[in-house]
Amino acid sequence: MKKRHLSSLLAAAAIAALLPLLPVAGVAQSDAKTGKGGKGFGKQGKTEQKDTLTPSGPAPKMSDGKPDFSGVWTPGLSFTQMGQVPLQPWAEEVYKQRRATLSKDDPEGHCLPAGVPRISPFLQKFVQTPTLLVILDEGNIHSYRQVFLDGRKHLDDPGPLWMGDSIGSWSGEGDGGTLVVDTKFLNDKTWLNGQGLPHSDQLHVIERFTRPDLGHLNIEITMDDPKAFTMPHTFTRTYLLRPTWEIQEYVCNEFNVDADHLVGK
Amino acid sequence: MTFKFRVALITGCALFGAVAPILAHHSFAAEYDSTKTVTVKGTVSKLSWVNPHAYVYVDVKDASGKVTTWAFESLSPNALSRQGWNRNSLKPGEEVTVEGYMAKDGRPLADGSIHANSRAITRSDGRKVFVGSSADEVPSK
After folding, report:
1. What ipTM is given for this predicted complex?
2. Count of domains for chain A
3. Quick check: B16 and A254 CB within 8 A?
4. Structural domain total, chain B
């Protein structure tokens, strides 16, 4: 567990150093200085981080007064943050094996879906109607989630699904209300993150979406997995609105030569 | 490596590479060696604007005139476009210097080009293009 914590810290440090590459602050400004003839490239130069792209203002509402989550969102650094997931011993061993082989078998490297609640650093587009929320993923592969808001129940055992079966309901909690999304029937092929945190087909995910203002979307995520975790685990993500951006094509299998060169050690 | 004339392969612990960069669909550390850095000077033969990563092909000529082609994995086209680049940002024949990381398996791509990952590409006038490396969300160690 301590090693995992250290990995998270290192990952956070790496991400902080490379923030300009993420679609957080828009066009990257880099003044990286390159070293030559030494043992490496030298340290990346400092870059000012000022978010000038996230708008301010009141959160929009649907005609029925419910929060409207529509828009193009960047997860920013959220895609790496999951905290300490309490794994059972067998799952801890799986995780260690995936770390030891440097995530070479990550399904995403083979252009497979991320599953839930894993996300990529790419954009997500939310399209909301009174009875349906659609989440369009630009990457890792083009994929989508349908969150049904029409009062229906979960499917009757549809078999393991890559993105699960998601049912939404409204709660009065939070500023302006909360959308509670219940997702089940996920397969055990996906990883929870790029480091290889595993889960089973008993993973049950509850996401609580709130929009405190125009530019921010908060998601509190609780994962429970009686076959892989020792207890439920909750963490949060914050997405940032990008009102002038659009999701783009990202056809992962077009030229995925990486799959043949992922050797691990 | 025998590219003494225009290529310097530098092996060591790259400060920058001590932690892997981000933004790829695959594990950086599983494919590239952050301690095997390379600096290549040559001419662009092709910019392949493809998913999930654009590739920059660079021809390097040694003293005898023999040309070797390097293929540098870059960011994805959508990520590059948000940095202000497009498929015409590098043109065939343009002189560039590319800093990057070697592939771990040492095998060329199917077309025979040397396989590496680009961190930064600098034009002859010193301006940088395609700054950034594809990689992932985990540390290399």
Report:
1. 0.76
2. 1
3. no
4. 1
